């Protein structure tokens, strides 16, 4: 069923070439090794990018590099981080790090966003770190690593940072612009789905990894409560299907008090015309963002797939999300799995939302580009709902172009037919996503490393 072993060999060799060594030990993979482009920061190990490589190494029975990575990133958590004179919170983990040589000695230099273009905060890093730590423990049985004092302390710092009481009425996490895979201005500040799905998966991971001693128990209780509230809120209010769209279409505005149906005061006029044509009769998805007076109806790939994988979406919703992807295949997968978000923002919206960003022109890069890294998430999500044939279909599409185009970072165009305008070649998470996908299909038991089953404690959604 899965032929094309030459491709696997090529990808495995390219992944091994991307391994980053520190004091003689493998500790991560660099983001890309494009022989024709300036490295910029692509010669660094990005925490979010490494998760794809790390999962493959775990599935291969090579956990050492993942262990080293987890330990090093944990240590970086306590490093000096400073944006001019301001010092961001301690639980923050770096977006990326690199090896430098100082006075003849190798050191790690981390970027907590203070170097990054536009100085964006990598809020997803600590979530990915927790998710990968849990995958490592599942793959190796080495719970002792997560139970070490320094690891427990690191988990506590992360939880302090995201469970802290704030000026907020929602259980979702309020974040600044560009705080995850989309690390540029794209109208994804506030309560973006991508962050909520990763937040949920990270809290589920923490619940499995926290020691239940005195201090740990307090954190466990806080995690438990937040998980329930978060799942309730996202399932109830982010969900979009034809039934919900019709409700929103007839919403009344200005409702005050506890009986309000239109809790967030969404005006029907904000329903975009593309959605009315596009939304299938069956199927549904989680909206991209939700806040006072605002639903962002764009479809975001990672958020929806992660919602399925982590059981943030309930079973009915998970099936509906995959059903929507199947029906809107040409738009969401097209010529390369799959869209980072759909549709693109264009014209005046593009100017206002992206700040006229030439890298994010319509149907390019973050603004409606197709990203091969999402292939492994698509595979995991379809496996989880028993629609593995879709993963095979997506893989077959990807296999036609990945090697020929030299493992591109992303694709452009309405249906992903164009090679990304500024896409890097030999992008490591593209290579790793292909390998993770192949390995998952060969042995679906690996899905347990990354997925979560339905949490029976989640409060049933009544609206
Ligand atoms: C770009 C992407 C980001 C990724 C990084 C390294 O900045 O937007 O998601 O982590 O490249 O590949």
Structure at a glance:
The chain is mostly helical. It is 44% helix and 10% strand.
Description of the structure:
The chain has 463 residues and is mostly helical. The protein has a domain at 63-237. It has helices at residues 5-17, 47-59, 64-76, 123-140, 143-147, 149-163, 193-209, 214-237, 242-249, 273-278, 301-309, 315-327, 329-332, 347-354, 374-384, 388-401, 428-442, and strands spanning 19-22, 25-29, 45-46, 96-102, 105-111, 239-241, 284-286, 289-291, 294-296, 299-300, 341-342, 411-412, 418-419. The strands form 6 sheets. A 3-stranded antiparallel beta sheet has the order 3-4-5. Helix 7 packs parallel to helix 11 (301-309) and helix 15 packs parallel to helix 17. The protein is globular, with a radius of gyration of 21 Å. The N and C termini lie far apart (44 Å). Alpha-D-glucopyranose is lined by residues 31, 46, 48-49, 181, 183.
